Here is the input.
Amino acid sequence: MQSPSSTGILVTLAVLACTGLLGWWWRRRDGRLRRPAPSTAPAPAAALAGIGVPPGVVTLVQFSAPVCAPCRTTRRVLTQLRSDLPGLHLIEVDVEQHLDVARALDVWRTPTVLVVDATGRVAQRAAGVPSADALRAALTPLLAEAPR
Here is the structure.
């Protein structure tokens, strides 16, 4: 049997290192709340109204799909937050049925959670399963500012 060449070993190690770094980056980014980039899509407010986001209410909008396993985890997190934080509204949107809205709001994967403030502006967003603590920290000041 022939011994592996040093070039082959180096290429294998480089591929493994790159894969490890990519996995680390993805896990670090997954579910993290971030401020949305300025949208070039026409009328995100109209898209939000089209899926039933009520005016004057802080709302969590979850975009999900029937075959999405992380969507079930996200649903449990959001449902628990809704019961813990009075005045919070929750809407789940099936991306297969509302693909036009998903495109207008720049949703590219499921689950995606949008935190919509009382003025109807998307204040935060997360692609992946967000942590309950991060959502609570983002929602508390928005709920305090919301009209009652």
